[in-house]
Design brief:
The chain is of the alpha/beta class. 38% of the residues lie in helices and 24% in strands. It is globular and about 55 Å long.
Length: 268
């Protein structure tokens, strides 16, 4: 079965259709361009749903591309949730980027205590933002690096609740992960791989991951594995350096037929 290939700009503007409450998963190894692609999809989703609340939650200390994208999309960065009140003349932002400041240790402090304190601080902010999204609804809640939030920060219960009950409440969870499996520390809730209406898979050389993709997509495992194996990786250079962008296999469960979800290839 041949799949239609769409340049990224054409796919985002003419093909990608998003309703608030739908979940989205992006799965590919590190370095494949997940952050940029997710922000590009978010920009279109905001255009299609102008009344939706938008919340990008960032647990990492540094994400190179995030500040520029947050500014471009009109997302006000806040280190806490709920965000501090701004003067009335600033106006209402298009959404928020919840990005806590990390608590660094002082010379001589116990490293384990510093680590535990920082994780507890970041987790408290992330959980407050997630709870607000789930309770209020009408929101696109982007959990940047969902593995860190789910496993390291202990948020799997929050995400399971969103993924199983959030659709009817208009609470759509977006997340990106490097592979469809866990580590010795744990794994992202399995609902993240089964519940999303929109699934994007990047190039992956690990056969075990590709086999798991078949289960995620609800289509023939061997077929999905072969498609992902053949996805091209493109290199380009900009002012921030050299980058690699993988083609993506898109599975749209919102448009499923007798043979499974609608599929296509998304280029750079």
């Amino acid at each position: 079965m041949a799949l239609t290939y769409f340049p990224r700009s054409v796919f985002i503007e003419d093909i990608f259709d998003y309703d608030v409450g739908q979940h989205l998963a992006l799965i590919e190894p590190t370095g494949g361009g997940k952050t940029r692609f997710k922000y590009q999809l978010l920009r279109q989703a905001m255009k299609l749903n102008p009344g939706a609340r938008v919340k990008v939650t960032i647990p990492k200390r540094k994400v190179i591309e995030a500040p520029a994208w947050n500014a471009a999309l009109g997302l006000r960065e806040t280190p806490a949730w709920p965000p501090p009140k701004d003067p009335f003349w600033k106006g209402k932002p298009a959404g928020y980027a919840v990005w806590p400041k990390h608590l660094l240790g002082k010379p001589g402090e116990d490293p384990d205590m510093v680590l535990a304190r920082n994780r507890a601080h970041i987790a408290a902010v992330m959980k407050a933002a997630a709870q607000d999204s789930y309770q209020e609804g009408n929101v696109i809640h982007d959990a940047d690096d969902i593995y860190v939030q789910a496993v390291v920060l202990g948020m799997n219960d929050f995400f399971s609740e969103m993924l199983t009950n959030g659709r009817e409440l208009g609470c759509g969870l977006w997340g990106a992960n490097q592979k469809p499996s866990g580590t010795r520390e744990g794994s992202v809730t399995s609902f993240f791989y089964n519940s999303p209406s929109h699934v994007f898979l990047g190039a992956d050389n690990d056969e075990r991951n590709r086999d798991r993709f078949g289960e995620i997509g609800g289509v023939d495992r061997k077929y999905v594995s072969e498609v992902v194996k053949r996805l091209k990786v493109h290199e380009f250079t900009d002012k921030t350096g050299r980058h690699a962008i993988s083609d993506k296999l898109y599975l749209c469960k919102a448009q499923s037929g007798p043979e499974g979800p609608a599929m296509c290839i998304v280029g750079p």
